[in-house]
Amino acid sequence: RWSKPRGRSRATRVLAWLTALLGLASLLPTLPWVHVSLGLGDLLDRTDRSYLFIVSAVLGIGLIVVSLQLARGKRRAWGIAMFLFAAAAIVHLVKGPDPVAALLDVGMLVALASYRTEFRAHGDVSTLRQAILFVPFYLLVVGIFGFVSLLTQRDFVSPELTFGGMVEATYGGLLGFDGPYEFEHRLFSDFFGDALLVLGIAGLITFLFLAFRPLVRGRGPEEEAREHARRIVRAHGSDTLAYFALRRDKSYFFSADGQSLIAYAYVRGYAMVAADPIGPPEATGEVLDEFLAYCAEQGWKAAFLAVREDATPMYRERGMHSLYLGDEAILHCTDFSLEGGEMKAVRSAVNRVGKDHRFELIRESDATSALVAELNEISEEWRDGAEERGFTMELGEEVEGVEEDFVIAIARESGGDGRVAGFLRFVPCYGPHPGYSLDLMRRRPGSENGLTEFLIANAALSLGASGVERLSLNFAAWGRLLDESEGLGVGGRIQRRVAEALNPFFQIQSLRDFNAKFEPEWLPRSIVIEDPADLLKVAMLYASIEGFIELPVIGRFLVPPVRRAESGVAPAP
């Protein structure tokens, strides 16, 4: 029987909070008023130990920083915290002595050692975003230290403290500048400037480590692993979303027997999986168990996006929670026809555009180099400098003219040199009911209205004539909620309200209406998460990796990017 992997315990969170508080305590004994209150005022005139106060400040900030990873059960953070507390205990005994602070440090060493088995998670995949977010956090902590330190000296400093002066003294001190103030207490004068300089050097080293580590570890999956994944997709990729597992920014987790695959991207503590596991149907539950255990070892949470609704019981059996996400529009090509009143709008568009355009359907590998260049030029014009969108249903690759399994639907202008007006690219889905899924949908700006309908309809007709059964179109988020008004529960009504609020920004209804023109089968899909409390965060991360959240200039750094982790393989049983 499957047992849910142990997640983050309350002990890790409590110990993380205590670590942060004692980090602050490591800063406080450096302040003169604390020594006076402890009856250690004579230390204010001892300059031979000022370097120990600097070390104490560095250790304190180090404990505050490492507490963030302790809360997530990181094994490496546990080891660093043990070292920092041991060093802090020694420093507090030598520089004071400060027996209370030293005893607290020893107590934390005992507590961390007692709960060492709770800290099992591996380190996160490094990202440039970690380095960028470290800067304001570090400056905030240093700012608090600097401002509080200066305020304790307000009666022993000249000239009088001002906000601007404190900013200059604190942040200028990180660069080695003395600042505008003179201090009466020799110890504070020696300690404060040197401490800030050391903190500045330590912060710079940490930032450079975080910034350049992704350049070392951010390589894509090995070609051997990618080929292994491709073989599994070809053997068992019957789902219309299966081929998108081969996006190059995804990592691969293989089952212990090597027959099954879960493709995911690591984003801010979450393994974001698009669609269901790929492999023999009887083994999907087993690879899911192995993957969840792997995520627990890494200290991650798992989120599954766009899983088939009929597969959600498999996830719920494992203690996870599912929520309706939207519907995928699927055409049955062998039955597709433009006849009938319900197809009048599509038929009209096809006939109108067909007067000035001709249709072609080719394998991508048959495209000439000139055609490949023209198609990619259209893509550039279509994006107009914007970042490529898509994660669940897009490969994120240009046309290369090498893939035999891809097909391209092309609309050429009838006159002149037959310039391409627009095109669609489809990737395969395998299994007993072969088909294709829409990957790229591009047209020249200013091209004729109805061109997309012309391409989709002709592609469905041509593929159906060659025996292809399925053609997957766009995914319409929450579309069913906008169609239905009766029989919705409380959760459904809340989702409907959210969908209605977001509709003007994300064109939810218009996308649903566009797909509905083709009379598709609607395949409902869900989002699956471990903890319902994480729904909002997962939704924001999902929107960001799909490209729905964009910020000018800095967006590529602040919006969480998908990141490749090292390809995982379940341990052999």
Describe this structure in words.
By secondary structure, the protein is of the alpha+beta class. It folds into three domains: 208 residues, no CATH class; 138 residues, Aminopeptidase; 196 residues, Aminopeptidase (3-Layer(aba) Sandwich), CATH 3.40.630. It contains 19 helices and 14 strands. The strands form two sheets. Strands 8-9-10-11-12-7-13-6-5-4-3-14 form a twelve-stranded mixed beta sheet, sandwiched between helices. Strands 1-2 form a two-stranded antiparallel sheet. α1 runs antiparallel to α5, α3 packs antiparallel against α4 and α3 runs parallel beside α8. The N terminus is likely disordered.
The average pLDDT is 82
Order of the strands making up the biggest sheet: 8-9-10-11-12-7-13-6-5-4-3-14
Q: How many DSSP-defined strands? A: 14
**Uncertain stretches:** 1-7, 35-47, 215-220, 550-564
Strand count, sense and closure of the main sheet?
12 strands, mixed
Which structural class fits the helix and strand makeup? alpha+beta
How far apart are the first and last residues' alpha carbons, in Å? 15 Å
Radius of gyration: 30 Å
Strand content: 15-25%
Gross morphology is: elongated
> How many discrete structural domains?
3
Figure out the total of helices.
19
Q: In which range does the helix fraction lie?
A: 40-55%
